[in-house]
């Protein structure tokens, strides 16, 4: 059961959202409501919420300020902003509080379902990690390592991957990125001088016409939903894969393979 908190000073908006979510998720969710940011912060201080869908512009305390207070109490909940304006300033504010996404009013049902599914998948993934992680009481972390077939591998061990030995510092960096939200990961990679390339069907540039030779991170949208608005707006550039016939999209792993192959090909041609 997932706790969903709807925060909006307009009762009609809250009721409409609650009705849509209840219709599609039914007994999978418990829906709660708050009339402004201040009330949302008070409710979050008393009870943890899994998903918070919150308007930005509200009296007493706006959504961004409320999210800052909520983040001090809960760093894991998925926050989704609602806004009547498609303005990058809102996207930038959303990034600062590690929001999952932001939706435009009036909220399209497909966008709402996509962001709800994304939030639930994120929560399920975090819960699965918790279930497969234990400690020995001395601060050492033990995890099941499916690739090596080993169990209870200490976090302090050195491990091998594709014949390359990686030390604990490298492993911890990768683990931190893997367990971080998308915005934190993108920000970290940009600080390291990595270009962020996103794949999107509406992009203007085909992948083979884009310069992919530098330090590069490739983001592939989820199958059926693509990339959320915040991730797309924080990519350095977007590319698309040409499609023909009735096919409108490819399997995520296939798309990744196509773009990665092109990036490797460009790098190898540069070396020659």
How would you describe the overall organization of this protein?
This protein has 272 residues and is of the alpha/beta class. It folds into three domains: 126 residues, 3-Layer(aba) Sandwich (Rossmann fold); 45 residues, no CATH class; 90 residues, Alpha/beta knot (3-Layer(aba) Sandwich). 42% of the residues lie in helices and 21% in strands. The protein contains nine helices and 13 strands. Strands 2-1-3-4-5 form a five-stranded parallel beta sheet, with helices on both faces. Strand 6 and strand 7 form a beta hairpin. The termini are far apart.
**How large a portion of the residues is in β-strands, by DSSP E?**
15-25%
Helix content: 40-55%
CATH fold-level topology of the largest domain: Rossmann fold
Count of separate structural domains = 3
Order of helices and strands: EHEHEHEHEHEEEEEHHEEHEH
Note the gap between the termini. Answer: 57 Å
Radius of gyration computed on alpha carbons: 21 Å
* Helix-strand makeup class: alpha/beta
Strand order of the largest sheet: 2-1-3-4-5
